[in-house]
Amino acid sequence: MKLEKLSRGRFIKTSIIVLVVISIFGVIFINRSKAKYRVTQSIQVVSGEVNYKVPDLNVLALYKQKSKGDTSESNYESITDVPASGYTVNADKSYCTIAGNDAKLKDIPMEYKDGRVSISINKKGTKCYVYLDIDNSIKVPNLLASLKVNSTSDGCPAYEDAPSVTTTETKALFCKGKDDFGDTYYFRGNPTNNWVKIGNFYWRIIRFNGNGSIRLIYSGSGSAQTSGTGTQLSSTSAYNNSANNAQYVKYDNSTIKGVLDSWYNTNLKSTYGSKMDGSAGFCNDADNGTYNSGVQYFKPYDRLYTNKKPTFKCGTPTTNLYTTSGGTKGNQKLTNPIGLITVDEASFAGGLYGTANSGYYLYTNQAYWTMSPTHYVSGGSALVLIVNSNGSLYYGPVHNTTNGARPVINLKADTTFKEGGTGTSTNPYVVVI
Fold first, then answer.
1. CA separation for the pair 118, 87 (Å, rounded)
2. Dist CA 413 CA 431 (whole Å)
3. What is the 3-state secondary structure (H, E, C) of 306-323?
């Protein structure tokens, strides 16, 4: 394909044989059967606009669904303008053909976004037929709005920064609190409508963060798990291999961070990395609390053991809130947006320090790590809080290898879920790629 001289003087003459994938933005039409076409005047290649004269390359037919649910051919109409919003590509019906071959090609990537159709092609003579279905997916704000928020009279803790939480919980509640971004909405007790599926992995919603993202905790691969080792990664892990320094309670370069990073890189990064929010972060509140007889306690211990006042806010977020380099808050130290639950979140969910509870959704009959340090014994070990096998909140030395790792992630506020999900373990909210 010969590329003609560009209209702006700063570009130079060039001839390129287009063998790379070209993303065609907009809609290109000619008259063929029942589809309407229009020849596009320019396409984008790497940078700048280039003119071209190959009419058999830039052909696309577009069809729009008339009424939702019905995917029969008669329920689609040929259109000449791309809808500004409200539709999604029907991958099963859409296809392309190559000149001289009527075989339907189903493996050509197609995308409809922001009122544009984008198709990746690499052969001259490609003609594509794109079917747009009415978008019935669930948006995050709509999902949040569909959930009934309970009051303090129902059993929710008070709506304040650090309310008193002195009891366990087994009822299904959806409560409102405060975090570093604003209002947060969280599940407490034993809800049955907080399940999410991402690819082959099942998760449970901990809360809707104040910035609109959704915080999830891992709950199984292949099927929804509520108890046993299937609720955590395949093997148990030390939080840190060494314990003889207070610094080993920190998430920086910890053993468990390496475990989570490795799992994320293998299972989520390539397909779902763009769905992850890096700003909500993960709180590793290692601020010093009280000191007594050679024992340095950290703030989470003071809050949960001494005062029974959990908080969603992270002490000194510039150092303790682990976010990615693109985050708007926190220390921006993370390469991957993955971490662990905090003991405060476990308390709001229905757990209590030293008190067993098998009736809330974080109970799994397995002990697993939180991200909250508890204390350091001078000359002894650094310790981090855990959700114990009986559902109580307790602690363990960081080099203990019998506790599990349950990844926690944050989905972006613009995440879309498939239509029809109810949030149950058998019909979860399914993330759309």
1. 14
2. 12
3. HHCCCCECCCCHHHHEEC
